[in-house]
Amino acid sequence: MAEVEELLDGVVVRLPAAEEIRRRGQRRRARRRAGTAALCAGVLMAAGAWILLPAGTDRPHEGGVVATAPDNPFRENGMVRTLPAEEVPLYGTWRWKENEGRPVDSDARGELLNRAGLGAFCSVASPQPGAPDRVGYSREYRGGHDAVARQCLVEYDDAATAGEQLGTVHTGLAAEGLRRTPGSTPDGARGDRGATAAWAGPAPGGHTLRVYTRRWESWVSVVEILDGTDKP
What we know:
alpha+beta
């Protein structure tokens, strides 16, 4: 199904077609309603169990402190959140601005962003038959000296699928000669929340392609950066 380009504050954001988003959203909501009902029942039973426990100073719930789950970094006030330009890696070097013109992968240099299977990962079109159900979003950036960047954000149906697809991305990057940089989180080290990795490798023309990945439950973010023609 054709993608849609939506203008937000003068910035072109590639989105799936509206009917495609509605169709997938209805399917996900049905699954989540079933899961939420089961979870609520479990919480009520657990709450009753806490009430029946005798008081004691060594209870983990004493003092009224309740742990809360961190927020999804890819949603804000119910809306999908892509990176503003100043949060894109290497902003201090390339001074990114949201792309307002032609797609960054529309010329020869931009095509380098589609290496290692990233062109297919970044697609916002409907998935091919047999491929995992997903909703994709992307935002593009241009920097000084013709540097380009792109964030591809994908929501899958579940965390397990997201983990598998992120593993496929990492395998493709390694096959293309990119290497994981120091400080990256080893795959699986932080479960399904907050796992991050950075990759870098040479690209044709003497450039460097850098890729930053992050996973949060059923969401996967991939940020690609192709450096400029000259160092600033």
